[in-house]
Amino acid sequence: MRRCAVLLVLAVTAAGCTGRGPARRDDSPRPAPSAGACGQTLPCGVAAERISRRLADGARVLISTVTVRPSARVTVKPVFGDHLATTESVGRTARRERAVAAVNGSFFDTADSAVSSGYPGDPLGVLAIDGRLLSEAANGRTALILPGPGARPRIDEVRSAMWLTAPDGAVRALDGVNRVPGRIVGCGGTGGDRLARSGLPEQRPRHNQLCLDDSEIVAFTPEWGAHSPPGAPGSAEAVLDADGRVTALRSPAGGEIPRSGSTLTGVGEGVDWLRAHARQGPPFGRRTSVTDGGGRNILTPEASVLGAGPALLRGGATWINGAANGFTGDTSTERQPRTVVGTKADGTLILAVFDGRGPDSAGVTLREAAALLRDLGAVDALNLDGGGSSTMVVNGRLHNRPRGAEGAPVRERAVADALVVLQR
Questions:
Q1: Counting CB atoms within 10 angstroms of each CB, which of 204, 395, 402, 420 has the fewest?
Q2: pLDDT (tens digit, 9 = 90+) per residue, 241-291?
Q3: Which segments within 281-379 are labelled E, that is strand?
Q4: What global pTM score does this model have?
Q5: Non-local CB neighbours of 235 within 8 Å, separated by 6+ positions
């Protein structure tokens, strides 16, 4: 993630902010305490800034940014805490990973959510790290695609699909990975899903909504934690070794996940399929497809993918696909703290956090965020988790002012995962 390139200092120009009018220059960009000569406090090609701007109605917003040039000898990737079904602060993640910079990442299951599945920290939507799919896509939602060293990051809509081939040759779709079977928080799953509040079929993403499917098979990997979730009476779980061979079939589901293996938990028809086909002998086969909006495979061995949404910019123009990402108009038009990621035409990656909920920073709407990212040079941009989750850490120090509520003290929230900048 670094090679000696001139330290980038952001100079934001005034530009139109769709919806509330143009943003105005307030203060000159101020170098962050971490800024310095190339390679002294940040790797060459990586820069951190703290910027103040006035929005069209005079409201002030503070913006914390980290930019990563293509020449920087660093790796940018998502990481999580001790395991997927838990949370930790961005600061703790950054310190453990020795990251030069980090921001919060995915939307995630929270304990106070009316649709929680009981595992706070479970990422909602696609999460792949180093070619390994750890959470399936909410199909059609927008994601950050990080192809690996030497390749440019990009933003696109993402879908995933998985198939199992049993030892006897039987083939079945694998409904999910590392989530509670039967419950699809945020929807956007595979066939058979129904919206919990109406019972109607629903295949599209629905942010902060719950879909149900009474017949599923979900895989659990060691990244989930030491044990798979306890299942209801009648559920079943196949335990697989590192080669995919069945070592046990337990009922009800729930128990230790082999450190080098995995499990397959079935509910409804999924139980019948496992009982019929999960036999000891040849290994299970598993095929995984993660594709972009053009249908191209993006899950290479070095690739990572972080889902969120909606998109903010596409091809240099404001392009907010809120409905496709399951958002309502109220969510997108409120001024809130927001974390966003953008890409420039030359491949530079921009991480930005807009502070809000405090006397010195009002937050931004999605359209205001899009316009300000365009001012920073982004041609494509994506909204990540925001609100009280919006956090940036640079060189182990908090680089913004996260607040859990209007006027609340500055305090980091524990989140599911973080997007980190690691020195190579």
A1: 395
A2: 999 999 999 999 999 999 999 999 999 999 999 999 999 999 999 999 999
A3: 285-291, 304-307, 311-314, 317-318, 338-343, 349-354
A4: 0.91
A5: 181, 251, 252, 253, 254, 265, 266, 267, 271
Q: How far apart are CA 48 and CA 31, in angstroms?
A: 7
Residues 167 and 257 in one domain: yes
Residue found under tokens 């980091």: 412
188 occurs within a structural domain: yes
Q: What is the rounded CA–CA span in Å between residue 158 and residue 143?
A: 6
Confidence of residue 191 (pLDDT cuts 50, 70, 90): confident
167 and 274 in a common domain: yes
Residue 111 domain-assigned (yes or no): no
Tens-place pLDDT, residues 379-404: 999 999 999 999 999 999 999 999 99
Q: Which residues pair with 382 in a beta bridge?
A: 311, 341
Q: Which residues contact 121 (CB under 8 A, 6 or more apart)?
A: 80, 81, 84, 85, 86, 87, 108, 109, 414, 415, 416
Kindly report the number of other CB atoms within 10 A of residue 109's CB atom: 23
The CATH number assigned to the domain holding 213 equals 2.60.120
Q: What range defines the domain where residue 401 resides?
A: 24-105+308-423
Angle (nearest 5°) at CA 97 between 403 and 221: 95
The DSSP-derived string for 96-129 is HHT-SEEEE---B--TT-TT--S-TT-B-S-EEE
Q: Is the domain of 77 the same as that of 194?
A: no
> Is the bond preceding residue 310 a cis peptide, omega within 30 degrees?
yes
Count the residues in the chain: 424
Measured from the Cβ of residue 119, the count of other Cβ atoms closer than 10 Å reads 21
* Phi, psi (rounded to 5 degrees) for 273: -65, -45
C-alpha 120/C-alpha 149 separation (Å) is: 32
User: Whole-angstrom Cα distance, residue 329 to residue 355?
Assistant: 21
Backbone angles phi, psi at 368, to 5 degrees: -65, -40
Tokens of 57: 């109605």
Neighbours of 21 (CB within 10 A): 13
Query: Is residue 186 located within the same domain as residue 269?
Result: yes
Q: What are phi and psi of 143, to 5 degrees?
A: -145, 160
CA 303 to chain centre: 14
Tell me how far apart the alpha carbons of residues 284 and 217 are, in angstroms, rounded to a whole number. 14
